[in-house]
Amino acid sequence: MKTPLNPKFWHHKQVLVTGGTGFVGTHLLELLKPLKAKQILAPSSLEADFRDPQICAKWVAKCDIVIHLAANVGGIGYNQAYPGTLFYDNLLMGVHLMEEARKANVKKFVAIGTICAYPKHTPVPFKESELWNGYPEETNAPYGLAKKMMLVQAQAYRKQYGFNAIYLLPVNMYGPGDNFNPNSSHVIPALIKKFLEAQETNQPEVVVWGTGKATREFLFVEDCALAILLATEKYDQGEPVNIGAGFEISIQELAQLIKKITGYEGQIIWDTSKPDGQPRRMLNTQLADSSFGFKAQVTFETGLEKTINWYKKTMSAKAS
Length: 320
What we know:
- This protein has a domain at 9-174 and 218-246 and 282-297: NAD(P)-binding Rossmann-like Domain (Rossmann fold), CATH 3.40.50.
- Helix content is 43%, strand content 14%.
- It has eleven helices and twelve strands.
- The chain has helices at 7-10, 23-32, 53-60, 76-81, 83-103, 141-161, 187-200, 221-234, 251-262, 286-292, 300-319, and strands at residues 14-18, 39-41, 65-68, 108-112, 165-170, 172-174, 205-209, 215-216, 218-220, 241-243, 249-250, 267-271.
- Strand 4 (108-112), helix 6 and strand 5 (165-170) form a beta-alpha-beta unit.
- 45% of the residues are buried.
C-alpha cells in the first residue's frame, strides 16, 4: 500500500507499540518498519502484562512515542460472558501505561479507543461531539467505558501536565490476520468461518445471531494502521477523532455479501433470541480527513475478498 507517511518524522525516535503482535499491531508494524525509526518495541502479551505499572514503567523508559493498541476484546458473546474481565483489564492497561508514560516524559501517547464508547442511540453518522450524550449499548458498555477513560485521562493530563496524548476511535475492523475463534471473534470473521465450514460440510443452513437489522461500518485493517500512523505524525489536539470508512451496511446485507463471495448456496437462518447489539453504527470521518488527511483506501468488497482468501490459505496450510 502506497502511503503518505513521512519517514523523517520517525528517524531518531524510539517507539513502543503495545499489542504489536495482535491483529492491528502486525499490520501497523508492516507500515512502520520501513520508516526506519531508531527502535521499535513490540512486546507480546506474554512478554509484557501492561496491567502492571512496574511492567509499564520498564517498557516506556526512554521511549519517544507510545502507540497503545493492546486490548482484551471480542464480539457480543465474549462481551456478555466476561464484562468484568474486559472492564478491569482494559481500564488498568490504559491508566497505568499512560501514567508511566507521563512520568517517563514520553513525547506522544496515542490511545486507541473504540466505537463501543459511543452512546447506544447515537445519531448516524456518529460525530465526536456526541460521545458523552448517553450510555453505551449494554453488552459492550464495560469494555467501551474502560477504553473511554483513556480519553478522560488524556485530556486531564494534557490540561495539568501538558502531556501530548491523543485519542482515536476506530470503527469495527476486519482483514487478514483477524481473530476467527468463534468464542471471541467479531461478526465478519465469525460469518466467514461459518459459511466456509457450512460449504465444506454441505450444511443446508447457517444460523446467524440477531434479526440482521442492526447496521455496522467496517474498516479494513491496513487502512486503520495507516490512519493511526498519520495521526501519530500530524495530530496533536485533545479532541477525540473518529477513524472509519464512512459507510453503513446491515448485518443482513453483510451476511448475504459474505455468502456470495464464499460461494455458499444454503439458507441463512436468523436466531432472533440472540441480541443485535447497538442498533446502528456509522462514523462521521471529516475530522480525520481535515486533521491528518486520512481517507479509507480499500473498498469493502475488495477487503472482504482479501480476508476470505487469507483465511482459506491459512486453513489449507494448517490442514496440509
